[in-house]
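Incident log, structure service

09:12 report received: a user says their structure output differs between two submissions of the same chain.
09:20 pulled the input from the user's history:
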Amino acid sequence: MRYRRLGSSDLQVSEISLGSWLTYGGGVARAQAEACVAKAFEVGINFIDTANVYSRGGAESLLGEALAGRPRDSYVLATKLYFPVNGDRGLSREQVHKQIDLSLGRLRTDHVDLYQCHRYDRDTPLEETMEALTEVVRAGKARYIGFSEWTAKQIQAALDLVPRVEKFVSSQPQYSLLYRVPEREVIPVCKEHEISQIVWSPIAQGALTGKYKPGEPPPAGTRAASQEMGWAMDRFRDDDVLEAVQRLRPVADGLGITMAQLALAWVLGEPNVASAIVGASRPEQVEENAAASGVELDAATLEAIDDAVADVVVR
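09:34 re-ran on a clean worker, output below:
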């Protein structure tokens, strides 16, 4: 496993990180989830990402139990707030302080390494949010702050408040070889200000594994086949997308790697990406994904990837 510095922070995070959206504390049995966490440590993953809204706090609670007993400095822990959970919502000063305390209680720790705004809150003044996040950091409850799915304009507005408030060190966008929107504006402004990307959906909700075939129903037991989780696949279930993904198979086979590893290596080829978040319901998936760290794709491979998916990429 290779590690990268997270933005302007002193955090060194594994190139592959373990996420808990739609899985831990809800869609995956406790024993399986705990086995995935254990496997993550075994293969060198030190970065765990969650949020207060995942399984309505259940993901944080499960991770709090799974991480109990491990040295606190042996992992980097990140969580988020914003989305409605138990009647609360947003990034007001009241919510920032309330939700960090609730998250710390569920996670069984006195601090998180990274506290992230899950989305931008248009109903709360940005200054109020940034001041509250700064208070959380200065109280020792979070070491650094980040955001997810903010626009370049919103990012710059927050940066304009520095040094009166804490500076963001991370951005968490959707990013994959099928979805490249962050390259247009978000990554450039983040590069300029030493803000790293922590990528979610780098395998396009499983579509880039190649297990979903055009014109065929999703295999039983997969995310796309689940009534609870299938909606998250969105357009990645369209036949034109799945046909393009199948054109990637000979590229991965030629390198002797899986299609998931190809997709993760592609994302990690962007220097501004510090880590790619993967979800897993089985320990073997964690191990396979972790093996993508260190895989470097040459110019010919990158060209072959672009040729395969050119007509379906969202930019």
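09:41 both user submissions now match this output. Likely a transient worker issue. Closing.
09:42 reviewer note: The first helix runs from residue 30 to 42. The chain has one domain: 3-207+270-297.
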